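Here comes an entry:

___
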Amino acid sequence: MLDDIGNRSISAFLWGAGGTVLRICIQVISQIILARILGPEQFGLFATGLVVIFFANLFADAGLAYGLIRRPVARESEIRFVFTWHILISGAVALLLIWLAPRIAAAFGDARLANIVGWLALSSVITAIGATATSLLRRNLEFRIYNLAVVASYGIAFLCVGIPLALAGFAAMSLVAAFLTQAFIVSAVMYATARHAVRPLLWHPEAAEIVGFGATVFITNLINWIMSSLDRAIVSAVLGATSVGLYNTIANLVNVPAQSALATLQPVFYAASSRVQDNAESLRSGLKAMLGAVALFVTPVFAAVAVAAHTVVITFLGAKWIGGDAVLSPMALAVPAILMMGLSTPVLWAAGYPRREYQVQIPMTLLWIAICYAAAKSGSLSIVGWTVAGLFYIRAISIVYFTIVAVELHAKDMLAVFAPGVVVSALTAATAYVADQALGGAGLAELPRLVLIIAACGVAMLGGIALIRNRLPRDLKALLSRLGMRLPSGALRTAYARVLGT
């Protein structure tokens, strides 16, 4: 696929990856500081509010953005139509949420949620203002401004607004204020960058296709919400704000990197896949390269986090969050499944099966709800964590399977894709376990202990990659080679080439 779409997509990929790494750093640092200030209960209130808002925003977007991205040419009438309905629907959703806020709070058994949900409802309209412009940028594979805006807005919102308000005693509302500030900055930058006509248009001849594809995306996103957020809603309703604060915050230590990566890279992969949707070989090549990259570079990292979970939690969050390793271990192991599933979906859509994802997963949705509820009723966050991780793998296997069938890949091809990652992951996880046990037995403090574990795992991972580099699949080697060519010449490019053999 990468050969067909050229340097423009490589640039989009690199901007997406670079922006993702920087955003993850800012997010993790700010969340760690806020978690130490506020504790599990206040984070739990905010997390429950976000579950409600993210659900409501599914209706505010209605999948129209993806319908616009998919159009061969984005005409002014199509842009005006999408923008008009984004504003109308999001406005209605915001008003409905404000009206329902006291009832939502009562359903969760915590009156404090009413104020949080009411304020977060404004994010629906704020996001809608820049949503059409964002779609236009994504459609043209122009991700530089978007990623810079997201990174800068997160830093301004949470480091400059959220943390000072938290220190001033505003509790969960400090998180709400930061969230709204970020949404406003991103929307303002997006519209300023990709200005478009805003004159209302309720319908036009091509609208049916946009709405039809949008409906497919909406159903898929609804299922995704159920399977990625409903566990938090159930934990909040069954076990209370403190438990969901612990569960959500610990899970976010690994989910934030995963979801940030998907939010950035999935649109790139979708736009790229759409441009070669009639070329089955290109789709196969792109899918193998992306899945192989996740297996080789992502899985080892999160396998090590799962093994050293207790040290990670205590080092980053402190004593208030003791017991969080029971959630972190399973959630870390679920990250590769989440990424592989998310990166397979664009290929499934481009291959001509946009409805297959939700057709496969609708039966799983009811099962997901029942199993998560039963796990929460056990009263153990560890049981909830391992249950959700297992469900993510079942879901990922089903989506990846139907994607490889759609592009006519064979099982032996997938074994070659995943085998290098399995080897490197096993080596890295074993190193993390030995280092954690040895350093813990020596009585070393948490921070230097974690630093040494990271260093040991880094050496193990790089050594493992160097050992198996000659067995990397051709499609993955081609991707890595093209990425290496974009690195600045000098020591970095030389080291990259030596490790990967590119």
About this structure: Confidence is low (pLDDT under 50) at residues 2-6. The CA atoms of residues 157 and 455 lie 32 Å apart. The chain has 18 helices and no strands.
